[in-house]
Design brief:
The structure holds two protein chains of two kinds. Chain A is α+β, with helices and mostly antiparallel strands. Chain A has a single domain, classed as 2-Layer Sandwich (GMP Synthetase, Chain A, domain 3). Helix content of chain A is about 35%, strand content about 25%. Chain A has three helices and three strands. Chain A has helices spanning about 5-15, 55-70, 70-75, and strands at about 20-25, 40-50, 75-84. In chain A, strands 1-2-3 form a three-stranded mixed beta sheet. Chain B is an alpha+beta fold. Chain B has one domain (about 5-120): 3-Layer(aba) Sandwich (Glutaredoxin). Chain B is built from six helices and four strands. Chain B has a four-stranded mixed beta sheet with strand order 2-1-3-4, sandwiched between helices. In chain B, α1 (about 5-15) crosses α3 and α2 runs parallel beside α4 (about 85-95). The longest helix of chain B has 12 residues, at about 5-15. Chain B is globular and about 45 Å long. The chains are: A alpha+beta, B alpha+beta. The interface of A and B includes residues 72 and 80 of A.
């Protein structure tokens, strides 16, 4: 399973989102630090889930980091757009 | 406390605003660090920058300190505020202005408004 699919699966299971978009944005970082051939180094995630209701920004990000677990240290960058 | 934690603790308490980043504020070495340093520079905020690429112990130590896996990391009055996404959102919503005002951090309000107008 690609990292993109792993991210999608874990977030789907953790938050049951009504909107979830996982984009491998690695190509736009070609030549920059952390880029690796074949991509799967830089990701943009947009997620909308009721589970985030009442949580501040830090808590939302921490919840996503926790759900992704060991994926986070394996990738170079993770841009998160989170809302309830 | 480990040595890295002690050093970080001292740094974030010695300066009102500290940015742990890749590279320096004059020469950022990562797009995400560059974006946050750029906002602070543009807003005329007096901040201390710590280049994690120059210190492996701090590079890992800062992640443990805040329990946050990515860099950059912004601290105001010793408190962790967030990384690139959060600082960007707070800049555009005006929450960063409020945070600075509440903590007595001087910044250029007109510059902050210009950033918001340009991203409206």
């Amino acid at each position: 399973m690609s990292i993109t699919e792993q991210i999608r699966t874990r977030l789907q299971e953790a938050f049951d989102p009504r909107e979830l978009e996982v984009v491998d944005d690695s190509e736009s970082h070609r030549g920059h630090a952390g880029y690796r051939e074949g991509g799967e180094s830089h990701f943009n995630v947009r997620i909308r889930a009721a589970a985030f209701k009442g949580q501040n920004r830090l808590a939302r990000h921490r919840a996503v980091h926790a759900a992704l677990g060991d994926i986070v240290p394996r990738i170079h960058a993770l841009a998160l757009d989170i809302d309830a | 406390m480990t040595d890295a934690k002690t050093r970080i603790d001292e740094t974030v308490k010695a300066h009102d605003v500290v940015l742990y980043m890749k590279g320096t504020k004059e020469m950022p070495q990562c797009g995400f660090s560059s974006r946050v340093a750029g906002v602070l520079n543009y807003m005329g905020v007096d901040f201390a920058d710590v280049n994690v690429l120059a210190d492996e112990e701090i590079r890992q130590g800062i992640k443990d300190y805040s329990d946050w896996p990515t860099i950059p990391q912004l601290y105001v009055k010793g408190e962790f505020v967030g990384g690139c996404d959060i600082i960007t959102e707070m800049t555009l919503s005006g929450e960063l202005d409020t945070l600075f005002s509440e903590n007595g951090v001087t910044f250029d309000k007109d510059a902050a408004e210009k950033i918001r107008e340009a991203n409206a």
